[in-house]
Design goal:
395 residues, 2 domains, 10-stranded parallel sheet, 2 helices, 6% helix
Length: 395
């Protein structure tokens, strides 16, 4: 099941969202995107009125399928290696749900317990059977230059993939995740925007050998901006995360090998003040800038975390509020999936971050882990006290 499918209140109005999206379109128009000559690198060209899925189905392995300007009402499936699906640019090539969708990729299962029944997805890169079980790894697929909007499920989903890449896309107002990868390795999410997702804008999950790079993305008005769950090794850098219930979260639910060995640096996470009540999750989310929940060997370095303030009563876990600038807590007593529990947070480094004007505290730590170091962070308030001193504090 989706671990966080529940309704939440979004403070960004439809007018604000439309204005922001219009701004994206203006930039695209004045930079000339969409008016270039045909790309000689394209193996297959698709124009408005033609089927993108037909082009994918007939393209050889390793092909570049170029899709021209227009609105295409399809849900797409890629099962071949080496496919590059290239739109003319976000806001120019738009993918929306069809009236008669293809019954593909509606379910995904990742052992031991994660059953994703998100519904109709925009672009699915996976080789799975009708029950969502993987039939094989899909390698080297890239999706670029699309707006994917209004799908009941996920905007772009990669499942059981190697070296997946999504860049220069906009995932808008999809009811599941914006752009996500499950059980995938060596991936890259770069220069994308996600907003209005009822789950994470960007998500890496169930990936014990992830080695992912998530950078230069923007997420706002999602549930979580970026969620890394039960996945190991990667980099989250230079992202802008604002106006959601939580900005950046590393979450260990105990289903596989935990969440560990990540480095998050130079991100801006600000004003993530929306309130998402407990539902499928056993806790509410509100006012979280960055959170390490049961993670280990995670480095938070030189991030700017400002004005993340709870807009409702935060959940109390291990005696501390699940809200604030940077939150470090154990999930050893937290069960997201029935029968599974996370672990303590340990051997994490929180250093040289600017963490200011967050409520109820700039730094929150439940004190249950070992080897967690708070070093030279610029902040004013913390629980326990004294974490904001200029030197090093190890717990």
């Amino acid at each position: 099941m989706s671990i966080s499918r529940f309704m939440f209140r979004i403070s960004v109005s439809a007018v604000q969202t439309s204005a922001l999206f219009a701004g994206v379109l203006i930039v695209l128009v004045f930079t000339g995107i969409g008016r270039a000559a045909p790309d000689p690198a394209c193996t297959v060209q698709v124009v408005a009125g033609q089927s993108i899925q037909d082009a994918i189905d007939t393209a050889p392995t390793g092909a570049t399928v170029c899709v021209g300007p227009g609105t295409y009402r399809e849900n797409l499936l890629i099962t071949k290696d080496g496919i590059t699906l290239k739109g003319a640019g976000a806001g120019i090539t738009v993918l929306e749900p069809p009236a008669k969708p293809r019954s593909v990729c509606l379910k995904l299962f990742f052992p031991p317990i994660d059953y994703e029944n998100n519904g109709l997805n925009g672009i699915c890169v996976a080789n799975v059977d009708a029950d969502g079980h993987g039939l094989g790894v899909v390698n080297d697929v890239r999706v670029t230059g699309f707006t994917i909007q209004g799908f009941p499920g996920v905007g772009i989903v990669f499942a059981d993939t190697n070296r997946p890449r999504a860049d220069h896309n906009v995932a808008a107002n999809n009811q599941g995740y914006g752009i996500t990868a499950f059980d995938s390795t060596h991936g890259r999410f770069e220069y994308n925007t996600s907003y209005g997702s009822h789950d994470a804008g960007f998500y890496v999950g169930d990936s014990p050998e992830a080695d992912f790079t998530v950078r230069y993305n923007t997420a706002f008005a999602d549930l979580w901006g970026i969620l890394v769950r039960d996945s190991a090794r990667g980099r989250v850098t230079d992202n802008l995360l604002q106006g959601s219930c939580a900005g950046l979260v590393f979450l260990n639910t105990g289903t596989i090998s935990g969440v560990h060995h990540w480095r998050a640096s130079h991100n801006i996470t600000a004003g993530n003040n929306n309130f998402c009540p407990a539902g499928d999750l056993p806790f509410a989310l509100t006012g979280v800038g960055i959170m390490i929940a049961g993670g280990d060997h995670i480095v938070l370095w030189e991030n700017r975390v400002r004005e993340n303030q709870a807009s409702g009563a935060p959940t109390i876990i291990n005696g501390v509020p699940l809200a604030g600038g940077i939150v470090v807590v154990s999930t050893a007593n937290v069960s997201v999936f029935p029968g599974f529990f996370g672990d303590v947070a340990e051997h994490n480094i929180i250093a040289n971050n600017a963490v200011l004007h967050n409520q109820p505290f700039d730094l929150v730590y439940d004190g249950l882990g070992t080897g967690n170091r708070f070093v030279s962070n610029t902040c004013d308030t913390s629980t326990p006290a004294r974490l904001c001193l200029g030197g090093e504090s190890e717990h």
